[in-house]
Amino acid sequence: MADENVSRLLEEQKRERMANLDLLRKLEKQLDAKQKLELQIEQLKGKSQVMEDIKKEIAEIKVELDAKVEEINYMQALNQDLITKERTCNDELQEARTELIMGLKETFGGHASIGIKRIGELDEKPFRKACKRKFPKYDAEVKAAMLCSDWQEKLKNPAWHPFKVIIHDGKEKFLDPFTVDHFKMRH
């Protein structure tokens, strides 16, 4: 009986040990599963944090983008205004140029010996022609250049008034610079 009791006790201990081992394996599996879940939770938290950071960065980039779009729109509007003003000024300049040319043609009646090359620039040919008639050949070119330069300087001077107004017998008379200065050129 004692052997039987010992054998039963050993058998019981063996079953308890097996049950404990099964329980231990179950607990280890549960622990592994729990650790895997905790790891997944941490990874998801990390991903969630990254996503939130990305959302914040996207929001900041969107704000910057909106500011840049607004700035571009402003610059385009400003550029369009400047183009419009430039066209208007160019049109006004062309109109003034045309009126000036017409006015000069009317004033001199097409008989002037000084031609206009560009607005504000004189044509040297009439000066050379006049100087070749008056001066020796070697001096004519130099004199023509000097005279043209003098006239060019007069044209640049805003205080210079080419038409002198005199009152003769109660009437205004205009002396044009060509008769006055032409007289100077001949003497």
TrEMBL record:
Coiled coil segments of this chain: 10-71
InterPro entries assigned to the protein according to its UniProt record, in alphabetical order: FDM1-5/IDN2 (IPR045177), FDM1-5/IDN2_XH (IPR005379)
PANTHER family: FACTOR OF DNA METHYLATION 1-RELATED, RIBONUCLEASE P SUBUNIT P38
GO process annotations (BP): gene silencing by siRNA-directed DNA methylation
Protein name according to UniProt: Factor of DNA methylation 1-5/IDN2 domain-containing protein
Domain Factor of DNA methylation 1-5/IDN2 residue range list: 117-173
Organism: Dioscorea zingiberensis
Name of a matching Pfam family: XH
